[in-house]
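Hi there, hope your week has been kind to you so far. Do you reckon you could talk me through the fold, stretch by stretch? Thanks so much in advance, here it is.
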Amino acid sequence: MAVITTIEDLHRLYKRRAPKMFYDYCESGSWTEQTFTENKTDFQKIHLRQRVAVDMSNRTTESTMIGEKVSMPVALAPVGLTGMQHADGEILAARAAEKFGVPFTLSTMSICSIEDVAEHTTKPFWFQLYVMKDEDFVSRIIQRAKDAGCSALVLTLDLQLLGQRHKDLKNGLSAPPKLTPAVIADLATKWRWGMGMLGTKRRFFGNIVGHAKGVSDASALGAWTAEQFDPQLDWSKIEKLRDMWGGKLILKGINDPEDAVMASKIGADAITVSNHGGRQLDGAMSSIRMLPSIMDAVGDEIEVHLDSGIRSGQDVLKALALGAKGTMIGRSFVYGLGAMGEKGVTTALEVIRKELDMTMALCGERDVKALGKHNLLMPQGFGDPTVVL
C-alpha cells in the first residue's frame, strides 16, 4: 500500500485507476491551458516568512465560512461528473466532508442527485447552480435544493458559454461513456472503476434526467445541455435568482475587482475568486494573482473565498494570508476520490490540514484567523493585475 503524504501522491494513484476520459476531464483546461498551469505555478511565486522562538502550542485551524463553523477554511468545490470518477462519487465526497467538518458543494452537473446526497448525509450541504435557459427547470431545481435543506446556493457566473477543452472533445466525453473500441480498451484496465459502476444505478446526470422537460434518458441529455447554458445571464438575472433562493448566496467565478464590487452591491454573502480552474477563459490571470486587487476593491464589505490551483495546505495558507476567509478545492479532492473513494477524499483533507497546520506554526501563528500579509514575502507587482511577472 502506497504511503500518501501529498496531494500529488493521490494524483498519481488516481491517474492509474480512473478511465482516461474522466481523468482528462478533471486534469485539463481550455485551449492552451496557460491559465490552468498558472493557477498552480503562481502560488509558488509567493514565499513564506519563517518565524522562530514563538509559542506554537494549542494551534487551531477552525474558522467559519458564511457563518458556518468549519474545521478548516476549505470547502469541497462543485465538480461536474464526480460520480463518474468513482461510483456514487458525490455521496462519498459529501460524507467525507461532513465527517471532516467542512462544506461540500454539489454541482448541477452531478451524477448523484440533490435528493441522493441529502438522503445519505445528515448535515446541510451547498448547492451550485448553472443558470439554464429553461426557467422552469431553474426554479424547480432551486426549490429542490431548498427542500433538501441546502444551506447555501453557489451561483456560477463564468459559464455562460462552455470553454473549449480539447481533450473532452477528442475523447467524446459523456456520462455514461459511449463504448467505442478505444473506451472499451481503456476500461478493460480499470476493473476497480468498472466493478463500482456495475454496483450502482447512478450513471447519468441525476439532477437533470427525469427533471428537465424532454430529458427522460441519457440520449436526450447531450442536446439539452449543449444549448441550455444561458448566455444572457446578467446582474439583473442574478438579483432575481437571489430573491428566488432567499438564503445565503455565494457568487462563484469572480476574477476582476469591478465584478467583485458589483457582487457586493447586490447583497451576496460571499464571492469565490475563481477562473473555473482554468477551464473557461484561457489567458485569464490566476485566481491567486487576482486576489490582492479584489481584496483592495471590496475589503470587508463581502466575504471572499478563493479556488483554482490549490494543491496543498500551503496554498490554502497563502490565500488566507492575502485576505480570503475561505478556500475551495476541486481537483485535490477528486484525485483522492478517484484513487480511494471516500477514504481518499478524507486523506486529501487530512493532507491539506496537516500542511496548513504545520506551515502556520512555522510562520509563527497559532490561529488560522490570525494569518495576514505579514506572513508572506511577495514578488514586486504580484498583486497588480496590470503587471505580468
